[in-house]
Amino acid sequence: MKLLGALGARAFGGMKGRSLAFRLVLISTLWIAAALAAGAFLLTGLFRDYVARNFDQRLETLLDGLVALSEVEGGGQLTLTRSAGEPRFDVPYSGWYWQIADAKEVVLRSRSLWDRDLKPLRAEGGAVLRYDAEGPTDQELRVVERAIQLPGARGRFFYQVAGDKSEAQADIERFESTVGWAMGGLGAGLILAVLLQVRFGLRPLRRVGAALAEIRSGRAERLEGDFPTEVTPLAVELNQLLDHNAEVLRRARTHVGNLAHALKTPIAVLTNEADAATVVAGAGAESNFAETVQRQAGLMKRLVDHHMARARAAASAKVLGARTELKPVMEALCRTLERIHEDRAVAVTCECPDGIAFRGERHDFEDLLGNLVDNGCKWARRQVFVQASLAGGRIRITVDDDGAGVPADQRAKLFQRGTRLDESTPGTGLGLSIVRDLAALYGGSVELEDSPLGGLRAVLELPGF
């Protein structure tokens, strides 16, 4: 039973009310319990009837033997030619008795009755009566009675043979105990078989789940391996779904790229024409029209870049298998931005443990982190520090600078598209807006806090592995 419990605990491990394995085991257990209970009830009932019939037949046999030993003498007196043949008839109050009575009184009785009598029911017409009665010592007796007309007798004699029912009841109880243990062992074996069947029978489904986890983590692209006939169609359909999803993503990216390319060309033409118009008008008489075109064309370009990033992220954020290792991307970005801002001697350092991976596309992570680090470099005096950590499946990245910082009541404005609090440095005002939108598409967030270095800290949270 301990082995069954251990296997049951392993088989039920992780099973919940909505688990297929739990339902299969529960239904099988209920059915086995009901079937075994019905079987035990039927077997014990049949055995009880068999024992009762056999006991009655035994008593009737003794009664027939008692009749065969009876003889009526010349004076009409009834005698027995010899002993009835059952030793317990001679033991006082043994529970086995016989008695012969006429219409008025008891004529003969067994020594086991001693000085007590059995009360006959007065059977009629030679019929055999079978009934329960109370014995001399409050025993529960089974009595067989029959009225017999012997040759030479003036009237009929009523023959009774009684036996203690406790013997038959003991046989029934032993049989019920045996059946109970047998059915219990059989039920335990059947439930164990069900547990093993469910555990090993559903293993291909667990393999499918593990394969999907591999795809989601980026370590595989398709469901690979041999599956049973029943599971193969599921694996085929999942692979086709993955292929379709990848094709839809590829087409979406192509359409976005085509749209961006189509828009960038007229924007570039407008910008060049505006620059040419400005030169023709002269430095002292710059055209208001040219200035307006330049400003609006620049805004259009920034908006195209912004919405391209959002469309790309929206298409890839929910794709299975997207995975980006943080450390090499962070180190490359820090080196690149340090070179870009080398004229200001800003040191950009980063710290990231090995093995941390972002659940998303590499270029999206580069946009997220690149905008934050670039902002830090623009406003830092001498130092920008980037640090990454992983806890509870969430990546936390902090970007600290030692600049002047931003008042707490002004930080929310930085996330508004096109808003800039300081025009002294070049920029579009879209960087933090893009970071916020991209992070939200991946189920992440970005916040601004005070930095331990004295400036501003950007805290970026993203889903990890």
Spell out the key features of this protein.
Heat Shock Protein 90; Beta-Lactamase; 465 residues; alpha+beta; 5-stranded mixed sheet; disordered N terminus; 5-stranded antiparallel sheet
Summarize the structure.
The chain is an alpha+beta fold and 465 residues long. It is built from 9 helices and 14 strands. The longest helix has 50 residues, at 232-281.
Enumerate how many helices there are, as a single number.
9
Q: Over the alpha carbons, how many angstroms does the gyration radius reach?
A: 50 Å
Beta-strand percentage?
15-25%
Using the alpha-carbon principal axes, give the shape: rod-shaped
What structural class do helix, strand and pairing data support?
alpha+beta
Report the span from N to C terminus.
41 Å
Summarize model confidence as the mean pLDDT. 80
Largest sheet: 5 strands, antiparallel
CATH homologous superfamily identity of the domain at 324-463: Histidine kinase-like ATPase, C-terminal domain
For the biggest β-sheet, the strand order reads 4-3-7-6-5
Percent of residues in helical segments?
Answer: 40-55%
The H/E string reads HHEEEEEEEHHHHEHEEHEEHEE
- The second-level CATH architecture of the domain at 324-463 is 2-Layer Sandwich
**CATH class wording of the domain at 324-463:** Alpha Beta
- Strand count: 14
In terms of per-residue confidence, which ranges show pLDDT below 50 for 5 or more consecutive residues? 1-15, 418-429
CATH topology descriptor of the domain at 324-463 = Heat Shock Protein 90
